[in-house]
Design brief:
The protein is of the alpha/beta class. Helices cover 36% and strands 19% of the residues. The chain is built from 12 helices and 13 strands. A 6-stranded mixed β-sheet has the order 1-5-4-2-3-6, with helices on both faces. A 5-stranded mixed β-sheet has the order 8-7-9-10-11, sandwiched between helices. β9 and β10 form a beta hairpin. α2 crosses α5.
């Protein structure tokens, strides 16, 4: 039987290599996140995979799961530790390899798996790791599922099962990019800065933008898990200021900046001015409101009141429901 996890262990010791360590506070409301080696070790990740597999059986979903990992020096090893635990619980795993978080969610549908587990530290600094999970597509885990997963793992209440398996899906990113590019191309001549902060998006964002028909100005697209300039996070002013300087230097029409796992996008306009996410959201809502009059938009509570006051949006009959932060809550 797999040992019951403990909350802390000293690194570089026999105990660290012989017992699973999982700090309880890593289980958050809608995902899990730890400092690797200080708050969770590889055996702890195995315990997490075993617990996740146990939960899938408990929820009554088909034990098949899509997984991928972001570009950190330790993410692949963490993924394989998770896969080991999942397989011990009887889960068939489909591995899409190096991926963006949206690519992993897409894989749930494209590969027809009930569940997903994306290994990523998101926009956090190096040293952090985590798992974004779901088993009722398209929603991801919320407080109920995360609370139950925490209880299973920390109490060692694992369910072992046969039938687990592993399959690597070769060149899955091409399937994802082809789907995104399967739409009318951009006809207006546009020069776009693709800023990736040396993170995962550097392998994918420039390729997609080119296929959509724009001229791409690559900015820090070379993958480097040391993040030599700054942590890839387009909500950080350091990255936004660097994007603004690139726009002014090149005369670009717009700069798009992506975070470490490609599910955040920061925007700088042709004048080098940052356009914050709530304004981007209003612009998207305006377009959608014309297509779908009298719509209700669910908006992150951290956004400003623009959605409730913007005349162009209100003219479409739109209403706004402000809700809790996090895509897990927004989707629900």
């Amino acid at each position: 039987m797999f040992p019951k996890p403990v909350p802390s262990l000293a690194t570089n010791t026999y105990e660290y290599e012989s017992a699973p360590m999982v700090k309880p506070t890593g289980f958050r409301e809608y995902d899990a996140r730890w400092l690797f080696e200080k708050e969770i070790n590889l055996m702890g990740v195995q315990a997490l995979g075993l617990g996740l597999g146990t939960l899938l059986h408990e929820m009554g979903v088909k034990p098949e799961l899509a997984t991928g990992h972001d570009f950190r020096s330790y993410s692949a090893s963490i993924k394989y530790a998770l896969v080991t635990g999942l397989m011990a619980a009887g889960v068939k795993v489909k591995d899409i390899g190096l991926a963006l978080s949206p690519m992993a969610y897409f894989a749930q549908f494209a590969l027809d798996t009930a569940a997903v587990a994306m290994i990523t530290a998101s926009h956090n600094d190096n040293g952090w790791t985590g798992v974004k999970m779901g088993a009722q597509r398209p929603v991801t885990f919320g407080p109920d599922e995360m609370g139950r997963l925490r209880d299973i793992v920390l109490n060692g209440k694992f369910r072992y099962a046969s039938g687990g398996g592993y399959e690597f899906i070769e060149n899955f990113p091409e399937i994802y990019l082809s789907d995104l590019a399967d739409r009318p191309k951009i006809k207006r001549k546009l020069k776009v800065v693709a800023a990736c902060g040396n993170g995962t998006a550097g392998a994918f964002a420039p390729r997609l933008l080119e296929r959509l028909g724009v001229e791409v100005i690559p900015m820090d697209v070379h993958l480097d898990w040391n993040f030599p300039k700054y942590n890839p996070n387009p909500e950080d002013m350091e990255m936004l200021h660097a994007m603004a300087a690139k726009v002014k230097e090149t005369g670009a029409d717009v700069a798009l900046g992506f975070d470490g796992d490609g599910d955040r996008c920061g925007v700088v306009d042709n004048n080098g001015e940052e356009i914050f996410a709530d304004k981007i959201g209003v612009m998207l809502a305006r377009d959608l409101g014309k297509l779908y009059p009298n719509s209700t938009f669910v908006v992150d509570v951290k956004s400003t009141g623009l959605y409730a006051t913007d005349a162009a949006l209100l003219s479409t009959g739109a209403k706004t429901d402000y809700w809790k932060t996090g895509h897990s809550y927004i989707k629900r």
